Amino acid sequence: MQGSEYTSEYTSRYLDEVRQIASLVNEAAIERVVELLRETRARGGRVFFVGVGGGAAHASHAVNDFRKIAGMECYSPADNVSELTARINDDGWDSCYANWLIGSRLSREDLVFVFSVGGGSVKHNVSTNLVESLMLARRAGATIAGIVGRDGGYTAEVADACVVIPTISDDTVTAHVESFQAVIWHLLVSHPRLKRNEMKWEQMSQRGAERSFSIAMG
User: Which fold has domain 16-216?
Assistant: First the structure.
């Protein structure tokens, strides 16, 4: 019974934190990211999504959705495990993403989009491959955006637009940041200013509504 009560308290607290974070997220920062993505697409630039761990999974998922729904040319270095592991093995972890971006001819027309819990830090030796990617992006004149947590790290320092997920409790930072990264980039790709193609279930719902309307009208 004691374990069950503890679980109930944690679940209640966790969901309350979700509500708090949702109310605190900077909406203006989200809209700024929308505008940067629109500008990148308009000038024919590409979006390179980068992340580590859960962020890498977000990057891969985002590539799919932004290509399919928003009609944007997008890539992620984590999607080609053969190249990624070869670069790590031969050149080291720190440069693996940056060297991939060099091979992809990153330019001022493009945008580098970061998913990271801490945003990267050379001082603390955390996500240094993301930091080197952002250093390269700055040298190339590429646009930088990100969805990060804690204080935003190096990403928040150099980004043209950055959404920082507020910290409510120290023991749920990663869980909430990675959860809200998915919430926000889904908001972005479905945003009326970015969406070009309807999603499957929404399309089916619209067809059903149209069919019902036609029947009602005789």
Answer: Rossmann fold (3.40.50)
